[in-house]
Amino acid sequence: MRGRHKVLLGMAAGVGKTYRMLQEGQAEAESGRDVVIGYLEPHKRPQTTAQAAGLELVPRRRVTYRDVSLEEMDLPAILDRRPELCLIDELAHTNAPGLEHPKRFGDVDDVLAAGIDVFSTVNVQHMESLNDQVAELTGARVRETLPDGVLATADEVVLVDLTPEALIQRLRAGKVYPGERVEAALNGFFKLENLAALREVALRQVAEDVEAKRLTLVTLALREDGRMLESAAPQAVGERLLALVKPSPESQRLVRRAWRSAQRLQAELDILWVRSHEPDAREREQLDGLRRLATLLGAHLLVVAGDDVAETVRQVAAERGTTYMLMGTPRPRNALRRVATPALPFRLLQLLPGVDLRIVADRSRRPREDFG
Predict the structure, then answer these.
(1) Which residues on neighbouring strands pair with residue 88, listed in sequence order?
(2) β-bridge partners, 158
(3) Span 124-142, pLDDT tens digits
């Protein structure tokens, strides 16, 4: 039987995710369960280190990469030890090359597959589909991400909440970073408005996760009564999204926004590039990036040859059962072209009468107010 996975989610470093994970681990151990710490990153926080006291710690393994010695979680040792519950910090961590999995969430999946329960931690800004949104809110691009599906398939997601004001107090008191890093943090990622926005994102994420799991449970409950389901009226057709992209850097932002919409609608996501020419080296590189992102999110990338974008989209939408379509902001056109041919959005509205069309704005180009 597969283990159960609980994820402790926070808006930022320092809210107490690791401390809460250790607290719950201690409670499980006191109730008689066999608990070990598979990986712990206390960040030199004395209170966090003290909370781990008494729990068995699986030693890290040393890995050499480019003549640098690194310490990583010892997955084989955890599987050999076979505890009932394993505490694993920093779910989005990137492993050193050459280990069993590129990312720690792959290690966690192996632990769960072995029938071991896992408590793990992650910050909301590490979710792949939120990468652009977090960068827009904070001005900082997070490099270590994990697929949204990791949280979607978790048995339980718990928000470790703290008000922005309380987190800043913790930061000033030296409970998050060493003293020499505090001012830089306060003037950067840990600005009050950044934390308030991240907290809102985290609250919304957990609310959506709860709603998605509630809908799943309702569906499963209906399916248990097979005969009644067979005689019931046909179920409504589910939503299916189509994101129209080009092999350009802006398209990754569009795909992430489309994925968030698909998650809210409990829908599949198709990503389409209508190829009117052979891609050059730069476009091939961008297309590879889109392919990796689609794989990470669990979306479907389609590359279809066609000289007429609108007509090709119509054909693909009919084949895939598209109900909802997203596209980027069209480029400005000169007066002659506006008179000669309708713009792409208008053609799509004509060719796809039963499909909702949404034009996704590039929020990074939105003018920012200067408050001094």
Answers:
(1) 39, 120
(2) 8
(3) 989 888 888 888 877 778 8
Is residue 165 exposed (0-12), middle (13-18) or buried (19+ Cβ within 10 Å)? Answer: exposed
Which residue, among 97, 88, 23, has the nearest Cα to 54 in the 3D structure? Answer: 23
Q: How many CA atoms lie within 13 A of 205 on its CB side?
A: 33
Those residues whose C-beta lies under 8 Å from the C-beta of residue 212, and which sit 6 or more positions away, are 152, 263, 266
Q: Give pLDDT tens digits for 225-246.
A: 444 444 333 344 478 999 999 9
The packing angle between helices 344-351 and 309-320, to 10°, is: 40
Please state, as a whole number, how many other Cβ atoms lie within 10 Å of the Cβ of residue 77: 14
Distance of CA 51 to the CA centre of its chain: 29
For helices 192-224 and 131-138, the axis angle rounded to 10 degrees is 160
Contacts of 320 (CB under 8 A, 6+ apart): 240, 242, 270
Distant-in-sequence, close-in-space partners of 57: CB < 8 Å, separation ≥ 6: 36, 37, 40
Residue entry with tokens 């006291």: 53
| CB-based contact 15:162 (threshold 8 Å) | yes
Query: Which residues, 6 or more positions from 10, have their beta carbon under 8 angstroms from its beta carbon?
Result: 16, 17, 121, 122, 123, 124, 159, 160, 161, 162, 202
CA atoms within 13 A on the CB side of 294: 21
Mean of pLDDT values over 87-96? 94
pLDDT value of residue 215: 53
Question: How far apart are alpha carbons 187 and 196 in whole angstroms?
Answer: 15
Half-sphere exposure of 232 (CA within 13 A, CB side): 10
What's the burial of 302, exposed, middle or buried (CB within 10 Å: 0-12/13-18/19+)?
A: middle
User: Tens of pLDDT along 30-81?
Assistant: 999 999 999 998 888 888 899 999 999 999 999 888 888 889 999 999 999 9
What's the whole-model pTM score?
A: 0.68
Report d(CA 39, CA 122) in Å as an integer.
13
Helix or strand (DSSP H, E) at 357:
strand 356-360
As a whole number of angstroms, the distance between CA 26 and CA 67 comes to 38
What lies within 8 Å, CB to CB, of 254 at 6+ separation is 243, 245, 326, 327, 328, 360
